Amino acid sequence: MTGLGEEPDGATPLDPDELEGLKFGHVTTSGELNELEQANIESSLRWLQSRRKRDVLSEEYVRELHRRLFGDVWTWAGTFRLTEKNIGVDPIQIGVQLRNLLDDARYWSEHRIYSPLEAAARFHHRLVQIHCFANGNGCHARIMADEYLRENFDHPPIDWAAGHDLMQGNERRDTYIAALRKADGHDHDPLLKFVGAIDG
């Protein structure tokens, strides 16, 4: 069992100040933290199912979803990060980069630039690349992509995990992280295969 701050490959390490935002002082391992976060995520998914149609392509919604997903665990949930990470744009650029992405994603759906799954995969990748929050970006971006699919394309969600736990080290997670890294270099095919947009 790893301690807090010791994460699997591809995860964002937390700064000491960010760890101070943990609402549960008794948590000492990443396994305990994952259980708390998973419970919070499951309750937020019930909230999502009860919501009427909404504009998911807004900064307000991006923040609100993160707060819903992680706000029971972290005091800073829904707040853009203020520190540099091993991934992501300069914190000063988060707002601008996010607005550009949201505008692009709206254009993609309104003009049917990409197939629904390709649009969602590209949206997901750029949201992870921006890395708006101190932690939880992968999960948040996967759910954002699914909501984008549902609200803008009337398309079912992506089977991201395929029976695996993407928060733990396993072959599915390794394939997912490798696909995101390829997309960083403008090769989107592995990610498109991962989500089923093209044959693998």
Structural overview:
The structure is a single chain. The chain is mainly alpha-helical and 200 residues long. It is built from eight helices and no strands. It has a single domain (16-195), classed as Fic-like fold (Orthogonal Bundle), CATH 1.10.3290.10. It has helices at 16-19, 30-50, 59-70, 94-111, 116-130, 137-153, 171-184, 189-195. The longest helix has 21 residues, at 30-50. The model has no long low-confidence stretch (mean pLDDT 92).
Mean pLDDT: 92
Elements, N to C (H/E): HHHHHHHH
- The amount of helix comes to 40-55%
CATH second-level architecture: Orthogonal Bundle
Oligomer: single chain
Report the portion of residues in β strands: under 5%
Q: Characterize the largest beta sheet: strand count, sense, and whether it forms a barrel.
A: none
Task: Give me the CATH superfamily.
Answer: Fido-like domain
End-to-end separation in angstroms reads: 34 Å
Structural class computed from helices and strand pairing? mainly alpha
Q: How many beta strands in the DSSP annotation?
A: 0
Low-confidence stretches: none
Question: Which CATH class?
Answer: Mainly Alpha
Count up the domains: 1
Radius of gyration: 16 Å
Task: Output the number of helix runs.
Answer: 8
Looking at the structure, the CATH topology is Fic-like fold
Overall 3D geometry? globular
InterPro entries: Fido (IPR003812), Fido-like_dom_sf (IPR036597), Fido_containing (IPR040198), Mobile_mystery_prot_B (IPR013436)
Region (Disordered): 1-20
Protein name: Mobile mystery protein B
Active site: 131
